Amino acid sequence: AQQYENILVELRGRVGLVTLNRPKALNALNQATMNEIVAAVSDMDADPGVGAVVITGSEKAFAAGADIKEMASKGYMEMYAADWFRAWENLTRLRIPVIAAVSGFALGGGCELAMMCDFIIAGDNAKFGQPEINLGVIPGMGGSQRLTHAVGKAKAMDMILTGRFMDANEAERAGLVSRVVPAASVVEEALEAADVIASKSKPVAMVAKEAVNAAFETGLSQGVLFERRIFHSLFATEDQKEGMAAFTEKRQPEFKHR
Ligand code: CAA
């Protein structure tokens, strides 16, 4: 397997686990870390042996943001010419389901990375925030858009304008996270969820993700049409035949395309 400097990468059965590993910087996301995460998850996306991915950090910090020290002295032309943060877009184009397992701080780019995943499972010690305003900037990895989609205008404005943090329970109430679990079991819980996903037909999981994501980019009637056409297309697959036959025969399905 490829060696990385800032992340640990493992395969647990059919689940890929990416663990951010810059403990001294609370997993601050420098450019090298960004490129490694994108490369590792892209490899998993292309690997037929991987059915889902979990991205996690440490118990203290999922990630405390983009690396402030790396950016601090840059000028406009440098940021523009490098199109700083653009590589993250690659992460949002992947087809494999990706779960964020968030313990501790998920701030700035950390919160934005979690929101680029398909869903977030939070430890009860999780703290989400977009505190960029305290640094004289605004979110730059999609936070002003994805947080607003996730929790609505009122809370997004509150968080982004004041820079305050949201704890795990508020994040769950607001719809930012799908589940809150004890901090010590957040990775285990995310791996279990990923394992369930990886036991399904991979192409069906991929189109399911595509259909949900269409809700963010299309109007309702176009989105519903998109969904229905995908639904129809699945009747050309062996896994639909197997899934429905297994139900009728009262047994567990054995999906071919896992
Ligand atoms: N970038 C670079 N280094 C960071 C960092 C970051 N985002 N966050 C923490 N670190 C470093 C600290 O500088 C410190 O390093 P040193 O020991 O070398 O000084 C180390 O991690 C530990 O941090 P603290 O001593 O600050 O730990 P703490 O427990 O006292 O506080 C914290 C934790 C509240 C998370 C605090 O570290 C903090 O406020 N971090 C910055 C949070 C932030 O502003 N994030 C947004 C970044 S900008 C961004 O993300 C832009 C975007 O939209 C993409």
Automatic annotation (TrEMBL):
Class of the enzyme per the UniProt entry, highest EC level: lyase
EC number of the protein: 4.2.1.17
GO molecular function annotations of the record: enoyl-CoA hydratase activity
Catalyzed chemical reaction(s): a (3S)-3-hydroxyacyl-CoA = a (2E)-enoyl-CoA + H2O; a 4-saturated-(3S)-3-hydroxyacyl-CoA = a (3E)-enoyl-CoA + H2O
CDD domains referenced in this protein's UniProt entry, alphabetically: crotonase-like
Pfam families: ECH_1
Gene3D superfamilies listed in its UniProt record: 2-enoyl-CoA Hydratase, Chain A, domain 1, Lyase 2-enoyl-coa Hydratase, Chain A, domain 2
PROSITE patterns with a match to the protein in the record: ENOYL_COA_HYDRATASE (PS00166)
Keyword Lyase appears in the UniProt entry: yes
Xref: InterPro entries: ClpP/crotonase-like_dom_sf, Enoyl-CoA_hyd/isom_CS, Enoyl-CoA_hydra/iso, Enoyl-CoA_hydra_C
GO terms of biological process kind: fatty acid beta-oxidation
Keywords: Fatty acid metabolism, Lipid metabolism, Lyase
Entry's family note: Belongs to the enoyl-CoA hydratase/isomerase family.
Function: Could possibly oxidize fatty acids using specific components.
Name of this protein: Probable enoyl-CoA hydratase echA8
